[in-house]
Write a structure and sequence with these properties.
Length: about 375
């Protein structure tokens, strides 16, 4: 009965109802966008780690995030091999340098990752197929997502990084995350040629693989006990928690998008409340008639909440389509790893229904004006 009455009210003035649904659609779309941006921040921060091959990660005790890892002595990696559970360890070097695009006369910062070509550092098949190219002197692999300002990413093209001429030996597809506008991979030997002030004796990350059956948490705890104070060990879960905490709470990017989610929900509730109040005001005679027939305010309130739920559900469908389109545009324009997920769909739908219920209850003050005495 409530659903039928709510539907009749909604379809009584189709034009006005369409405008109201459009307003709610904007609010839901805003929530989709803010949640998408908010979720993409830690996802972008974890992009490279998700593609790397390791069970535990060795890092400096001064580690902040991937682009600011600090360094620790290489011998710490060799010390981990004394623990029986550790099967292998690979040092990784990070550096940021100026890439000179001679065609455009522009210099841009590029993030360079160095590692030994004989070690399995990435789980990306495209990188692993080309890793032998890095054995050649002054050769790099470049991410296809590197910005156009760096010039054409053509194989055998010679460019300069930190005033050293290097050759593009191949291109791979992974993404740049938040570590830079451009990403280059190279061998450890080529790395110190590009960055002569850095040495192979100072490592930025250590990727540890464990033997089959070894427990990562227990092994990490044991390593943390024996490692000096300049080094720490992360499990994948601990690293993920650390990166999410950094990007969500310690950076302006995460705080802005997090606050944006709250603002979007508040705006959505305001739009929905005003829309419902307007709908109720136009339908006061009908509500008064129902009161005269003996229906209580609680029953009429149920009709209002049902009406709000129907309107938000109808608005939800086109909001999904528009959000997916905007996600695609943002992903290709800014390289943010923003995608639609089932969890986000369910979250926004739950938020929409929750806002509908709260907005319906907030609009009941208008409903109390439906006085049968004044009507008749």
């Amino acid at each position: 009965m409530k659903t039928l009455v709510a539907w009749r009210i909604l379809t009584h003035e189709k034009g006005r109802s369409a405008l109201a649904i459009g307003g709610i659609l904007v609010a839901i779309l805003l929530i989709f966008l803010q949640l998408g941006f908010y979720a993409s921040v830690p996802e972008g921060g974890l992009l490279f780690y998700d593609a790397m091959h390791f069970d535990l990660m060795l890092a400096s005790s001064a580690y902040v995030f991937e682009a600011q890892p600090s360094s620790f002595p290489l011998r710490r990696i060799y010390q981990t091999l004394e623990v029986p559970e550790v099967a292998g360890a690979a040092p990784v070097y990070h550096g940021s340098g100026r890439w000179l695009n001679s065609e455009g006369g522009l210099a841009r910062d590029v993030f360079v990752i160095g590692f030994h070509p004989g070690e399995i550092v990435f789980d990306n098949p495209e990188i692993n197929r080309q890793v032998d190219v890095l054995r050649m002197p002054d050769t790099i692999l470049v991410d296809a997502a590197t910005r156009p300002e760096f010039g054409p990413l053509l194989i055998n093209r010679r460019i300069e990084i930190e005033h050293r001429t290097v050759t593009i030996g191949g291109v791979y597809h992974l993404g740049t995350g938040f570590v830079g506008l451009g990403i280059a991979l190279t061998s450890d030997i080529n790395f110190v040629r590009v960055f002569p002030r850095q040495t192979l004796a100072d490592v930025n990350l250590g990727l540890l693989t464990l033997k089959s059956g070894a427990n990562p948490e227990r092994t990490a705890a044991r390593l943390n006990e024996i490692m000096p104070a300049d080094t720490q060990v992360f499990t994948r879960a601990q690293l993920k928690d650390h990166e999410i905490a950094h990007w969500v709470t310690a950076t302006s990017t995460g705080l802005i998008f997090g606050f944006g989610v709250i603002v979007a929900c508040v705006v959505g509730m305001v739009i929905l409340s005003q829309t419902l109040a307007t709908q109720i005001t136009r339908q006061l005679p009908q509500y008064a008639t129902l009161k005269a027939m003996g229906y209580s305010n609680a029953y009429l309130g149920g009709i209002v909440v049902t009406l709000a739920t129907i309107m938000s559900t109808i608005s939800f469908v086109p909001a999904i389509v528009l959000a997916i389109v905007i996600y695609w545009i943002v992903r290709h324009a800014t390289l943010l790893p923003i995608h639609m997920t089932v969890t986000r769909l369910m979250t926004v739908l739950a938020l929409a229904w929750g806002m509908s219920a709260l907005s319906g209850l907030a609009s009941l003050r208008v409903l109390r004006r439906a006085d049968p005495v004044e009507l008749f």
